[in-house]
Design brief:
By secondary structure, the chain is mostly helical. It has one domain. It is 76% helix and 0% strand. The chain is built from five helices and no strands.
């Protein structure tokens, strides 16, 4: 394996690591949004149900309170469904796991370096193909996730965020 090939593999590993961590950050964020909306909807629906049972709507001047609370719960549930946070959590987790898998494969390959250049070329083409395929099928990450990750780790500032954009 040449130094150029080794540098390329290290760069790809770093890109896979960056993508893995950014997608994982997105998973955590979307999971929080999903959980908060779920809990708020449950709490508000419970309050509305309790208010209806206890006769809150029978109190003069407060007849509208249970209906407003139920409407608020319905709006929270609709918001949760509209933004599909649960689906985003699943798709981003899958992408994060895919990039982690590629990172691990490259690490193993670098540890078990084989001096046979024919095998190295084949491995490079395989890693390149895996990175490109995963990047094409992975969901889009909002820019603020990338910016936050780059701020946390200066090493990533020079890395392009798209996988497979540099060839041998």
């Amino acid at each position: 394996m040449t130094n150029k090939q080794s540098d390329l593999l290290v760069r790809w590993r770093d890109k896979a690591k960056l993508n893995k961590s950014v997608y994982y950050e997105a998973v955590k964020t979307y999971n929080c949004f999903n959980s908060y909306l779920s809990w708020f909807s449950i709490i508000i629906a419970t309050v509305a149900g309790t208010g209806s049972i206890t006769g809150l709507s029978n109190i003069d001047g407060y007849e509208w309170v249970p209906e407003v609370i139920i409407l608020l719960a319905a709006l929270l549930i609709a918001t949760q469904k509209f933004f599909t946070f649960n689906d985003k959590v699943d798709s981003h987790r899958s992408a994060s796991n895919g990039f982690s898998n590629i990172e691990n494969k490259i690490d193993i390959f670098l540890v078990k370096i084989n001096q046979n250049n024919g095998e190295t070329e084949k491995a490079l083409e395989g890693f390149d193909r895996m990175l490109i395929e995963l990047k094409e099928t992975a969901p889009v990450i909002p820019q603020f996730f990338w910016d936050r990750q780059v701020k946390r780790n200066n090493k990533y500032k020079k890395l392009a965020v798209s996988a497979g954009d540099d060839k041998k």
